[in-house]
Amino acid sequence: MKNNKKILYIFISIILLFTENSLAKKKEMIWLKAEFPPYIILSGTFKGMGNTDYIQNLVENSLSDYKHISVVANAKRVFYELKRKDKITFAAALKTKEREKNVIYSIPYFLALPNSILIKKSKLKLFKPYINKGVFLLEKALGKSDFKLGVAVDRAYGGPVDNILLKYKGNKNIEVYYENISRTHITELLKNNLDYIIGYSCELTYFLKMNKKNEDIISVPIKDMYNYLLFHFVFPKTKWGEGFVKKVNAILKKHRDTEMFHYSHKKWLNNNSKKL
Question: What's the CATH number of domain 116-220, 3.40.190.10, 3.30.200.20, 3.40.50.720, 1.20.1420.30?
């Protein structure tokens, strides 16, 4: 009996040693994660159940020869780290001309409905001069009103909106937050500390679901905004990045038109957004 236990102990030790050596040989892959629900959910009831969470996990599982490490950072830090050219990636980025100088983009893996203006319904009549045929005139509102707008630091909202925000950078009526929309912007909107915010309608859906609220906030399309936005993985602009993006592209091509891939996004949309 003692001999059997000794043999079992040796056998387990060999397996553990083999496993440790195998892990030691694995190359590390650092994933930067910015809190971005319902795409990237880092805490709470729905932790890890975001659209991008699902897709990133799928990519990680397909790259089992790497040791995957997650590091939390806001959008500003994400693109600062990518410029430093470490072996890192981020899984939920929109294309901008400024970003393209420093990063390599994967093929797009899904399209999202564009960011829009979110306003409390009770305040909608105050914005009448800045809404034309159901479309919000963002530049006019920033240039001619004292309404407070909430935005996230270094977040890309989509070409036309980004250009307007750049033009009015430093405007006293723009409040810049380091936290995501569902943590601060919507809360400040409900408290009337902000008059309007910019975000995806699914971010509002997530906030209401998380907080079990039924607030009357409406979404208004922004003038000249794209019909949809494309999400990409991004990598440092290095030889390593050029090689790694090919691996990720192959995985995305294999999976991006599957039902589960689509469901991971659709489950966070309201009925109107699903139709669109």
Answer: 3.40.190.10
